[in-house]
Amino acid sequence: MLAIHFLLDKAGLFQWIEHATNAPAEQSIVSVLRHSSDIPLITVICFSAAIAAPLVEELIFRGYLYPIMKKYTGVWFALITTSLLFGIIHVSLVPFIPLAIFGAVLVLLYEYTGSIWTPIIAHCIFNTATLINILYPGILLPYGT
Predict the structure, then answer these.
(1) Model pLDDT for residues 9-25, shown as the tens digit of each residue
(2) Measured distance CA(100)–CA(17) in Å, rounded
(3) pTM of this structure
(4) Alpha carbon distance 76, 2 (integer Å)
């Protein structure tokens, strides 16, 4: 997913969205994390992003919404709809497309393994990698996030 984000960034998609919509380039919480020196705040944000949010989001999206939608609408409609909703709930236009793609990947992981734990762990790893890239730009990707 970080590679997809990198490619979309290099293709100019994020800059185009920012210019066309005047949307901020990053979520407000990312901005807080980048500019804060408040260690307790950074700790809470990191715990929330790396553990709490993935657990809650996966239980809601892949554990609850997706199976119900799949039952009544089929796999593809449920996959697309819950993936788009996943992108929308992050309340930022610029990362919407990569997050919707990530939501689809998480659905596919859930479908392939039959376990909610697989997308939970993948989501935790993704968010942790993103946090590392925010706090220490250039370690995981040459450009930061």
Answers:
(1) 777 776 766 677 676 66
(2) 16
(3) 0.81
(4) 24
